[in-house]
Design a protein that fits this description.
Layout lengths: L1 E3 L2 E4 L2 E2 H8 L3 E5 H14 L5 E6 L6 H9 L3 E4 L2 H9 L7 E3 L6 H10 L2 E4 L2 H11 L5 E6 L21 E2 L3 H11 L3 E5 L9 H15 L7 E3 L17 H19 L4 E4 L3 H4 L3 E12 L4 E5 L8 H5 L5 E3 L7 E7 L7 E9 L6 E4 L20 E6 L2 E6 L4 H5 L8
Parallel strand pairs: 4-20, 5-6, 5-13, 6-7, 7-8, 8-9, 9-10, 9-11, 11-12, 12-13, 15-17
Antiparallel strand pairs: 1-2, 2-3, 4-14, 14-15, 14-19, 16-19, 17-18, 20-21
Helix pairs in contact: 2-9, 6-7, 8-9
The protein binds pyridoxal-5'-phosphate.
Length: about 400
């Protein structure tokens, strides 16, 4: 979204027109930005045979999956239904990394039937997998490198108290199970969390993996997960992907020489690809001055975008109806019947009832985490592509709230 000649645009489409045409609340995604982010990663890691597996959980609309597929992405699924969405969008099974955590083993069996790449993250399942498939179907192993990193405890996945991955200190057990069942381990995987800007965290993780790899002679890839950080507000530190790409691909090349074979380098970005491409458009329902603050109430809430309440995330908010108005302080809140603040003490161009506000960075973990809490309906999604706005998901209707409920004749 950018300000041009006194109005906000996404590509050549006016943001105010989008709100008028499709109504609010409305999720809008910029296809150009998504592709730009995807291509930058490919470029940054071009020093290796890189495969970018888009993390579906960030934003799982099938049109977004098709867009990324068309530009050469693979997919990273954490549930069997995410994998199904990817298959539906046209990804080949062999392009889909399946990394569930604490899912039922039957999901792994189903994933094998579908032909997906299997990533195992506990010793018990590794044993089950070995007993069932032996060397007939390969699997990758998710390791926990015991590194504390990430923007928030709830999204840190690679530390010693995390439920994710098999501890690197359990390597002897892993190796024993692999030998016992003659398992074909085709990949090693780590994912230490989200919002990691320090290249050193990734490089340290890489060193740990390289050190373990000699125990696994059949590797085809090493998957470094994700966690690449983007800016949510001015001055935010972000992952310098070019610096990281250069350093990581260099040490990867050195590792491959020692390993004796060229492997593929995989990454699984979600947030980096779609966060900044998304905007949630909401309408100001009420401006409510109180003795302490002036609230701006909007027709959306934590049911549509939970990140501020769930992770204390900052999302920039812009009054697109009044781009040049004088600045005042507001606290922007949702319509849910509990505290659901989108942004506290924000300086914004003067807001009037009916004004359209744009909540930025609404591409990743926003729609995909939306719910029907308070019996509110989920909004429509629009993709702006080639300067045209296309509806890619209809807003829910009242009937959706009743769908699946069983009338027992009361
Ligand atoms: C969530 C997740 C990702 C994506 O993380 P981002 O911070 O959105 O890039 C990648 N891999 C796995 C296994 C994940 O669970």
């Amino acid at each position: 979204m950018e300000l041009r000649d006194g109005s906000y645009f996404i590509q050549n489409v006016s943001v105010i027109d989008l709100a008028e045409q499709f109504g609010t609340p409305l999720y809008v995604y910029d296809a150009e930005k998504i592709i730009h982010q995807f291509k930058s990663l490919k470029m940054a890691f071009s020093g290796a045979d890189v495969k970018v597996k888009y993390a579906i959980k960030a934003l799982s609309n099938v049109s977004i999956l098709k867009l990324l597929k068309r530009h050469g992405a693979g997919a990273d699924a954490v549930s069997i239904h995410e994998a199904r969405l990817a298959l539906h969008a046209g990804f080949a099974p062999s392009e889909i990394m399946f990394s569930p955590n604490c899912a039922d083993f039957s999901e792994i069996e189903e994933a094998v039937k579908l032909g997906l790449i299997i990533n195992i993250d506990n010793l018990s399942f590794l044993k089950k997998f070995g007993a069932q498939y032996r060397s007939s179907y390969p699997c990758s192993i998710r390791l926990n490198p015991h590194i504390m990193a990430g923007g928030h405890y709830k999204i840190s996945t690679g530390h010693s108290n995390s439920k994710f991955g098999i501890s690197i200190y359990q390597l002897p057990q892993i190796v024993e199970i692999v030998r016992q069942y003659n398992i074909n381990v085709n990949g090693l995987h780590v994912h230490t969390g989200s919002d990691i800007y320090e290249a050193d965290v990734f490089l340290k993780m890489a060193e740990i993996l390289f050190g373990l790899a000699s125990d696994f002679p059949d590797l085809k890839f090493i998957d470094f997960g994700s966690g690449f950080k983007v800016a949510y507000q001015e001055g935010d530190l972000v992952t310098n992907i070019y610096d990281l790409g250069l350093k990581l691909t260099q040490s990867f090349a050195e590792f491959c020489r020692q390993y004796g074979r060229k492997l593929e380098l995989w990454i699984e970005p979600g947030k980096f690809i779609v966060s900044e491409a998304g905007t949630l458009l909401v309408k100001t329902t009420v401006v409510k001055p109180t003795p302490s603050v002036t609230f701006v109430g909007v027709n959306s809430g934590l049911n549509h975008l939970i990140r501020p309440m769930m992770y204390d995330a900052y999302h920039h908010i812009v009054n697109v109806s009044n781009p040049s108005g004088s600045q005042k302080m507001y606290t922007v809140v949702g319509y849910i019947c509990e505290t659901d603040t989108f942004g506290a003490d924000r300086k914004m161009n003067e807001v009037q009832e009916g004004d359209i506000l744009a909540i930025r960075n609404a591409g990743a973990y926003c729609y995909s985490m939306a719910s029907n809490y308070n019996s509110r309906l989920r909004p429509a999604e629009v993709l702006v592509i080639n300067n045209e706005a296309k509806l890619i998901r209809e807003a829910e209707t009242f009937e959706d709230l009743l769908k699946g409920q069983v009338d027992i004749g009361l």
